[in-house]
Specification:
Elements: H1 7-21, H2 28-43
Helix pairs in contact: 1-2
Protein backbone atom coordinates (compact mmCIF):
# COMPACT_ATOMS: atom_id res chain seq x y z
CA UNK A 1 0.00 0.00 0.00
CA UNK A 2 1.32 3.43 -0.95
CA UNK A 3 0.27 6.46 1.03
CA UNK A 4 0.79 10.04 -0.01
CA UNK A 5 2.18 12.36 2.64
CA UNK A 6 2.26 16.12 2.67
CA UNK A 7 5.43 18.15 2.69
CA UNK A 8 4.63 19.16 6.28
CA UNK A 9 4.35 15.51 7.33
CA UNK A 10 7.61 14.69 5.59
CA UNK A 11 9.35 17.57 7.39
CA UNK A 12 8.11 16.25 10.74
CA UNK A 13 9.30 12.72 9.95
CA UNK A 14 12.74 14.01 8.96
CA UNK A 15 12.97 16.15 12.10
CA UNK A 16 12.17 13.12 14.27
CA UNK A 17 14.67 10.96 12.37
CA UNK A 18 17.40 13.58 12.81
CA UNK A 19 16.67 13.73 16.53
CA UNK A 20 16.74 9.94 16.86
CA UNK A 21 20.04 9.73 14.92
CA UNK A 22 21.68 12.02 17.45
CA UNK A 23 21.29 9.35 20.16
CA UNK A 24 24.63 10.04 21.87
CA UNK A 25 24.21 13.79 21.93
CA UNK A 26 20.51 14.60 21.93
CA UNK A 27 20.02 18.14 20.71
CA UNK A 28 17.40 20.20 22.50
CA UNK A 29 17.09 22.31 19.36
CA UNK A 30 16.27 19.26 17.18
CA UNK A 31 13.64 18.14 19.67
CA UNK A 32 12.17 21.64 19.90
CA UNK A 33 12.00 21.85 16.10
CA UNK A 34 10.11 18.53 15.87
CA UNK A 35 7.68 19.66 18.60
CA UNK A 36 7.00 22.94 16.79
CA UNK A 37 6.31 21.12 13.52
CA UNK A 38 3.96 18.72 15.30
CA UNK A 39 2.11 21.52 17.07
CA UNK A 40 1.68 23.38 13.76
CA UNK A 41 0.21 20.26 12.16
CA UNK A 42 -2.38 19.60 14.85
CA UNK A 43 -3.39 23.26 15.12
CA UNK A 44 -4.31 23.53 11.43
Amino acid sequence: MIKEITEQENDLIEAIRNYKRSFHNKSKELKRHAKILFDEMIDD
